[in-house]
Amino acid sequence: MDIQSIRLIYFSPTETTKKIIEGISLGIQADKVEPLDLTPASMKTQPIGEMHDDFVIIGAPVYGGRIALEAVNRLNLLKAGKTPAAIVVLYGNRAYEDALLELKHITEAAGFAPVAAGAFIGEHSFSTDAMPIAFQRPDEADLEKAKAFGKRIRERLSEIDPIKEIPPLKVPGNHPYKERKARPRMSPATEESRCILCGTCAEVCPTGVIRVNDTVTTDSDGCISCCACIKNCPTRARVFDAAPFKEASERLYKTCRDRKEPEIYIH
């Protein structure tokens, strides 16, 4: 199978998943690469036609051992006709648990045929300057491994024609999946002395729950704690000072210090 075109499909509020997906595509070296970014709030109900690409790379972040629910909702809008795909989860150096298996099931239900899978590491959404968690990952080593993964995909698929020769891909995880924990009702706050009302936070919010007028307001019920607003604020005016956030950040900082490496699965 010769891959001429690739579609990159991802939900990536802090762009860590996006970086890995792009790294994999560099290794595949297709003539045509098109992104489909599911992150913007406008994509919550955006109609998406059936995919007819040679190959698709699909990525999503892990929240609590599962695919982020907001990503699930948007991935469920996709449709394909047995399009071969690589599936990728991005986690913050704790564990990806059932997320990769969940993504496999989601993509198969949408009509994709996963032929390769990977679990990569990115800086945790709850990482701070005081308590860094997988700080600045994916780093150069991670991106090189992503590129090498893409090269392996290209080499493996070049040996197979047609795609129906590939048996179902096996990935780790349990089904039924682990239960999603109830999320505390909380959201980042704005330090008004630093805020310049530029609107960047509202632009990058994947759920569209931030409003910028004379002040910045956030609907805590719709916040998914992705921290995109914090990481993109040019004046560092967005802060997460809620007690549950601080407790989780400190716990992860203490227990997730040992560097974990990407894991890949391919026929």
Write the element-wise H/E pattern from the N-terminal end onward. Answer: EHEEEHEHEHEHEEHEHE
Question: How large, in whole angstroms, is the Cα Rg?
Answer: 19 Å
- Tell me what portion of residues adopts beta-strand conformation: 15-25%
Sketch the major β-sheet: 7 strands, mixed
**Overall number of structural domains:** 2
Q: Please, how many helices?
A: 7
The residue ranges in which pLDDT falls below 50 over 5 or more consecutive positions are none
Please state the overall shape, judged from the principal axes of the Cα atoms: globular
**CATH topology category name of the largest domain:** Rossmann fold
CATH homologous superfamily of the largest domain, by name?
A: Flavodoxin domain
**How far is it from the N-terminal to the C-terminal residue, by CA?**
14 Å
Question: How would you state the average pLDDT, rounded?
Answer: 95
- Give the helix proportion (percent range): 25-40%
- Number of distinct beta strands: 11
Q: In CATH, what is the class of the largest domain? A: Alpha Beta
Can you tell me about this structure?
With 267 residues, the chain is an alpha/beta fold. It is 27% helix and 21% strand. It contains 7 helices and 11 strands. It has helices at 16-28, 69-75, 99-109, 140-158, 200-204, 228-232, 243-255; strands at 5-10, 32-37, 55-63, 66-67, 83-91, 112-121, 189-190, 210-212, 216-218, 238-239, 263-266. Strands 1, 2, 3, 4, 5, 6 and 11 form a 7-stranded mixed beta sheet that branches. Strands 7-10 form a two-stranded antiparallel sheet. It has a two-stranded antiparallel sheet with strand order 8-9. Helix 3 (99-109) links the parallel strand 5 and strand 6 (112-121). The model has no long low-confidence stretch (mean pLDDT 95).
